[in-house]
Inverse folding.
């Protein structure tokens, strides 16, 4: 149902095979009375036309008034304009509904079996339309439908790390950028399809370009991955290109944002300073923002990576992050724009985990209201598993956003199946105790305007959008979980599989099972699953970077040495544990109470430290071996689907699983050899050192 050359992802709308079910859908949906008012409703009508045609096997009739001589119909519109909706929904319900919320309800009206989709805004109704289509694609009954939905998170954004003009994507494993900046403002059909995918899962904001907007000037900076020209987007001729994209996204309820360079007044303007307290700098930002809003009246705002990994920032002028952020925020304020300011700052401390808390916690309350501090889920960098960032509970007076990585930088990139939803769920549910028991992370960035979640996107110009077909589940799951962090992983997975691969129970069970097992497997063979991390190769070409195992390279991240392994982050070490609130801090302080999965993140322990009758090193060996077996098992289960799904997708994923299995063995053998070399402790089961490293 998307443009021909590209995969349909979860918007396939395959014909409903069961005749009885199809007939019940036809009664209520073969005739559609849908409002045509705003642009989002135009998108909703078009989606219904495509979706219902696919699902019902014939094009629906679209009406401008309620159809008379039919058994039933679908009505999409506002309560005040449609009698059928008034019959189904009370005024008070609409009044109390969030402006992105919607109601789906079946109702009998004038002896007809109807379905209504309504809300208080066009955007809400667009979301409701997608919900209905999702419901039908999963073959759920419609005769007694009563759904009231509201987003639980206000800002639901994807961050593209796309480098305009060079077309590459930092940490992208799905080809080049989907945005063709050379040809813009010419619009490609792909942009519209992408906007549909985002809207269908409730994403309401997009940052078009990389947070790295300039080649870092620090020694050893990895030029291959850093965006060089992003700051140029602020130039007028390029704002026309931004405007063209914003027009497409706006129709789908998605606001457009840009990453900007802190030194833009120098780079894009003609000033010789970017000092936030300089009046000329203040005026430059105000003028520049005015210009942006001339092109994009509903522009969302800016995202800034400052004083981080070689990008310029307020430190260049001896100003702190709040002063640095506020000058941009003041420029955006009159237009209703927002500044996302990243907390990913490290460098001067020997354990980077502690640093963003030390930098930002003292600034709580000093950021303007339209600033959102964007915090990565963990204190290091999107590792397969980390404890949550301590900053979430340290800035009650500041708007916060949680930054997640949808793209699989550290979890097998474009090759390995690794479903991130369970990991995000773990982060969201973690009880910080910030406001007593029962203060999960998700509560610290939900509800309020200016708070939300940003996901580093995994989309590129690959015909399947995400490089690996199964990685589509990460994009889908991101949108769904962020819309409602209370959704459970199983529900999200089930929805995705049914829409993407159909409703055959064996297929649903197998694909869901494979996804379910994928993250634990990656944790096993890339980390040993006791809280180690960052044992990846860290040099060289962008595709090798963070993919292959290389535990010797950065011993500081895992602390592997003759006397043991792990990093002491307790009071006797870097003190990261102490940045949590009690009793969480207390629990992490002692290896006796520290959860197993984070043990070596917080503690440096002897190799033969006792773990329930086994030792640390033996557990690491075992977990690495188990991880490989889990991949073998996932591959075998996938292979059983050969005749149950289409050849193209089947083969693509099967080939990737073969490659993943080989690579998992390489990981296992490299890690267990490393552990063995340092620990000098034999494996009880005689597998280490392996004879043939990749065998
Ligand atoms: C990581 C990642 C970089 C990225 C950076 C960031 O270090 O490897 O590619 O630029 O995070 O989030 O800014």
């Amino acid at each position: 149902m998307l443009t021909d050359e590209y995969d349909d992802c979860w918007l396939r709308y395959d014909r409903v095979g069961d005749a009885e079910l199809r007939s019940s859908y036809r009664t209520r949906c073969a005739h559609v009375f849908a409002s045509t008012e705003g642009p989002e409703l135009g998108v909703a009508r078009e989606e219904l036309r495509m979706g219902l045609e696919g699902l019902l096997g014939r094009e629906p009739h679209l009406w401008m008034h309620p159809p008379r001589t039919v058994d039933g119909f679908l009505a999409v519109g506002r309560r005040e304009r449609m009698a059928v909706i008034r019959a189904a929904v009370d005024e008070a319900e609409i009044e109390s509904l969030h402006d992105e919320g919607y109601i789906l309800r079946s109702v009998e009206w004038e002896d007809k079996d109807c379905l209504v989709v309504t809300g208080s805004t066009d955007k809400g109704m667009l979301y409701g339309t997608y919900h209905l289509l999702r419901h039908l694609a999963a073959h759920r009954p419609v005769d007694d439908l009563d759904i009231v939905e509201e987003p639980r998170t206000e800002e639901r954004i994807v961050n593209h790390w796309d480098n305009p003009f060079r077309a590459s994507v930092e940490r992208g494993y799905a080809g080049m950028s989907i945005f063709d900046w050379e040809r813009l403002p010419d619009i490609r059909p792909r942009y519209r399809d992408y906007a549909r995918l985002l809207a269908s899962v409730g994403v309401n904001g997009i940052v078009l370009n990389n947070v790295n907007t300039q080649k870092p000037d620090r020694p050893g900076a990895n030029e291959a991955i850093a965006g060089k020209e992003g700051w140029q987007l602020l130039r007028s001729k390029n704002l026309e290109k931004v405007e063209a994209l914003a027009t497409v996204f706006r129709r789908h309820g998605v606001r457009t944002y840009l990453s900007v360079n802190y030194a833009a007044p120098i780079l894009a303007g003609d000033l010789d300073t970017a000092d936030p307290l300089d009046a000329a700098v203040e005026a430059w930002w105000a003028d520049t923002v005015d210009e942006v809003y001339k092109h994009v009246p509903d522009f969302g705002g800016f995202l800034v990576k400052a004083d981080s990994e070689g990008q310029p920032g307020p430190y260049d002028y001896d100003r702190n992050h709040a002063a640095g952020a506020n000058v941009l925020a003041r420029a955006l304020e009159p237009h209703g724009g927002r500044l996302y300011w990243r907390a990913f700052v490290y460098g001067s401390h020997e354990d980077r985990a502690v640093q963003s808390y030390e930098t930002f916690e003292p600034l709580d309350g000093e950021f303007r209201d339209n600033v959102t501090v964007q915090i990565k889920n963990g204190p290091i960098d999107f590792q397969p598993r980390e404890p949550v960032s301590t900053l979430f509970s340290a800035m009650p007076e500041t708007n916060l956003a949680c930054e997640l990585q949808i793209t699989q930088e550290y979890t097998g990139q474009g090759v390995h199946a690794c479903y991130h939803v369970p990991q995000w769920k773990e982060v969201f549910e973690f009880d910080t105790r910030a406001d007593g028991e029962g203060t999960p992370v998700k509560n610290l960035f939900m509800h309020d305007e200016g708070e939300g979640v940003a996901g580093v996107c995994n989309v590129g110009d690959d015909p399947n959008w995400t490089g690996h077909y199964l990685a589509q589940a990460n994009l889908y799951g991101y949108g769904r979980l962020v819309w409602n962090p209370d959704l459970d992983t199983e529900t999200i997975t089930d929805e995705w599989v049914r829409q993407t691969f159909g409703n055959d129970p064996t297929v649903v069970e197998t694909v869901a099972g494979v996804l379910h097992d994928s993250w634990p497997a990656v944790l096993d063979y890339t980390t040993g699953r006791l809280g180690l991390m960052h044992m990846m190769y860290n040099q060289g070409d962008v595709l090798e970077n963070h993919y292959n195992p290389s535990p010797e390279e950065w011993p500081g991240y895992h602390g592997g040495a003759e006397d043991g392994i792990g990093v002491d982050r307790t009071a006797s070490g870097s003190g990261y544990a102490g940045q949590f609130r009690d009793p969480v801090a207390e629990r992490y302080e002692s290896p006796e109470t520290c959860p197993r999965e984070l043990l070596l993140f917080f503690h440096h322990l002897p190799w033969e430290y006792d773990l329930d009758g086994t030792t640390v090193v033996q557990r690491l060996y075992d977990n690495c071996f188990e991880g490989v077996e889990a991949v073998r098992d996932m591959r075998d289960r996938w292979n059983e689907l050969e005749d149950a799904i289409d050849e193209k997708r089947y083969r693509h994923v099967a080939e990737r699983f073969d490659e993943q299995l080989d690579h998992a063995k390489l990981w296992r053998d490299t890690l267990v050899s490393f552990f063995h070399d340092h620990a000098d402790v034999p494996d009880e089961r005689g597998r280490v050192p392996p004879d043939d490293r990749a065998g």
About this structure: The chain is about 35% helix and 10% strand. The first strand starts at residue 31 and ends at 34. The pocket of alpha-D-glucopyranuronic acid is lined by residues 170-171, 211-212, 225, 305, 309, 344, 381, 409 (CB under 6 Å).
